[in-house]
Amino acid sequence: MKVLLIEDDTALQATLQRTLERRGMRVTVCSDGLRALDRWQASLPDVVLLDLSLPGQDGLMVLSQARAQGLKTPVLIVTARGTIGDRIVGLNTGADDYLPKPFDLDELEARMRALARRAAGAIGSSPASPSSTAPMAFMGLSCDAESGAAYHHGQPLEMPPRELALLRALLQRPGHAVAKERLFSAVFPGERDVQPEAIEVVAYRLRKRLAGTQVQLVTLRGLGYLLRANA
Question: Where does the record place the Response regulatory domain (predicted)?
């Protein structure tokens, strides 16, 4: 796997490059935001590790420009900016995943390989629809779209149909905000007598049910809900 590491902290850059290369990856490094896009286009990486606080040009600007130019490489943001607001901005700009510093190197590798597999599976295929039979998974939590069953590390999860419908809808875009209106349609299809606030009750129950997993259901005021990895 080819990796482009865009990071200006020289100590962290050296540590990550050494560690990832020991694990069989080819790592290209860049420490300047103004040169990052050229390095990205030249190296054609499988995964980009992107810091946000870069000299010359902010990492979000690099990401925005890359997406505008049609670069679809999966991007994992690794940064000290760990607030929910920062994560939302990064994900909405085009990042595929977000890992706040400090992080565990094993988790970093697992997330990178998951992004690379997802991208490889998408080549030559159309975007998956909600009716796709491909399993949806995130941090050990998965849902079989064909059977509708939910699992945690392969063990079946028992939950009511509405909580399961909410989980399925969120697992289609883990780490991304999903609007309440869209989730309501998935959980209460065709039920015109149900108040929109009912989705909050289902979300509350699902949040409690996920308490024993590595996944957290987060409420984003004015935006909706998202699934994220527990810190």
Answer: 2-116
